[in-house]
Amino acid sequence: EAWVVSGAPTGGGNYTATSENWNGTTWTNSSANIIARGSCFGDGSLTEGWVTGGQKATGVSGTLLTTEHYDGTTWSAGASITEQRNSGTGGGFGDRYNSGFVGGYNGSAKVSTLSLYKGIAWSTGTSIAQIQSYNTGAGTPQNAMTALGTGNTEHSNSGTYTPKNSQTYNGTSWTITGALTRGRTVGTGGN
Known about the structure:
The chain is globular and about 40 Å long. It is mostly beta strands. A hairpin with a 4-residue loop joins strand 6 and strand 7. Helix content is 0%, strand content 33%.
């Protein structure tokens, strides 16, 4: 079972506040999330999902601080993140009660911050060794990884990307573990 939320519709346009559930065979519409957003962070199971940050709807400047929890049927408000961030392409890891995300863009610069969540409040953890945005994440806050994305000097629309190092996290510190064979951005990964 899985879920997806928000994003831009096919052909472009404004972000939508919609979600869908996957039961292993088909996708079905579920309830709308609270705030339409794109380029956000999120992860979790069908009954313990979360989404945070991201860009506001087209024509509205700024980045979101809000978090939403998903129980497989409805969305509810969670705690605000400590720093505005987008460009996550779903790059979170863990479930609603033990989660985190790293990297992204705060509206003026790419960031290396690790944000951790226990379902009540966000805290800041150890920064990644190499700044990345449009990156992906997988694992748990005690055993995580991030890969893909653009570095500190690359723009996401440049068309060329230097292969980025994957980085692993052991709950205390990040370690650069090796470069991907191809440079890429706006991808996703999984456990």
